[in-house]
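Quick question, first post here. What does this chain look like in 3D?
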Amino acid sequence: MPDAGGIAGDRLKSFVERIERLEEEKSALTADIREVYSEAKSTGFDAKILRQVVRLRKMDGADRREQEELLDLYMNALGM
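> Answer (accepted):
Ran it through. Tokens below.
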């Protein structure tokens, strides 16, 4: 592919193709994750809670504790 306007066509095409492949992989992974949540739900687990657990496990322990403490504080302030 020839250069056009100072842009290396082959290099640009390479980037675009790599991005397209990664987008396809991302779509496949998203479908796989959705399937796992569906499977968990069919065995009696709550998908919303599972998503929350996954999100919390990604967090640093100190951040998670701080968030839990704030949640407790807010709930107590609301009389919950």
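The chain has three helices and no strands.
The chain has one domain: 9-77.
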